[in-house]
Amino acid sequence: MTIIGFLGLGRMGAPMAANLLKAGHTLFVHDVSEDAVAELVRLGAEAAGSASALGTQCEVVFASLPTPAIVREAALGPDSIFVRGKPKVFCDLSTSGPQLAQELSAALTPQGVACFDAPVSGGIKGAVEGTISIMVGGPEAEYEAILRPLLEAIGKPTHMGEAPGAGQTMKLVNNLLGAVAIGVTAEGMAFGIKQGLDPAKMIDVLNQSTGINSATRDKWPRSVLPRTFDFGFAAALSLKDTRLLMDEAAAADVPLPLGQIVQDYLERTLEREGPEADFTAIAKVVEEAAGLDPER
Ligand code: NAD
């Protein structure tokens, strides 16, 4: 069994770390939130105390952190995972974009660290159930020998290529489709509701028709129809992902007008609902523009 470090025990990190524990691995954990650490310690993990302490104790370190800047600090900063110890493998499960994956690989590979980007998709439910899709970029030999068996305890990994950032690029593509599905579902629903259709019946019909998508299947039944807007993915993080995508696409000379619309919807969602808004609250922005009362 491998000695694993896990940095970032949030909505996604905590259940992924718990699944590594269940698979029988020794787990050292760290998070700036003491409550988050305490919950994993209750399940059998050991508290490392800091990112650098985690690095002294572990062979493989996973990170599930909110922003690329925080991931960079954890991997390359003054109190980072690699300042005191030398884990053999670093695997970033966060959505951090291809550019950071390239930067981390360029800095850590010469130090003998096998560096992987491995963003995930499938939400909190998938992370808890161990069914999330994991999109991996990084060296194939170490992937097969060390990383794949560990990732299989968390979800369903696919190796997208050896180039650093290959997993992140795949994740940005997936996020574009997921976010556009929310935007277009919000638009179609607002139109139907304004014309007098029943929203619950509309979702039932869409889910047995060609309009079915990840928003009609999961997001509307769980968080929009009941008006709870608590699906579990922050609009701020979704906006971060969309901006990463738009920057990468602009650099690659690929126009993404649908991505631009979604970015605009997410910015308006944060303005309307505040920094803690869930990304399903896009529906409220679209309803308001349609002259409906989102607080109905
Ligand atoms: P979250 O905000 O719930 O969790 C982030 C955790 O990191 C928090 O517990 C926070 O205390 C901790 N943290 C912040 N700074 C830290 C630091 N310097 N050192 C240690 N810990 C620190 O976020 P999340 O929803 O779990 O998302 C994590 C990553 O996964 C993001 O990149 C996100 O884009 C991605 N993601 C999220 C979802 C989702 O449905 N929530 C789905 C797929 C991918």
From TrEMBL:
Domain of life: Bacteria
Keyword set includes Cell inner membrane: no
InterPro entries, A to Z: 3-OH-isobutyrate_DH-rel_CS, 6-PGluconate_DH-like_C_sf, 6PGD_dom2, 6PGDH_NADP-bd, HIBADH-like_NADP-bd, HIBADH-related, NAD(P)-bd_dom_sf
Gene Ontology annotations of biological process type: organic acid catabolic process
PROSITE patterns in alphabetical order: 3_HYDROXYISOBUT_DH
Gene3D superfamilies the UniProt entry points to: N-(1-d-carboxylethyl)-l-norvaline Dehydrogenase, domain 2, NAD(P)-binding Rossmann-like Domain
NAD in keyword set: yes
Protein name: NAD(P)-dependent oxidoreductase
Taxonomic lineage: Bacteria, Pseudomonadati, Pseudomonadota, Alphaproteobacteria, Sphingomonadales
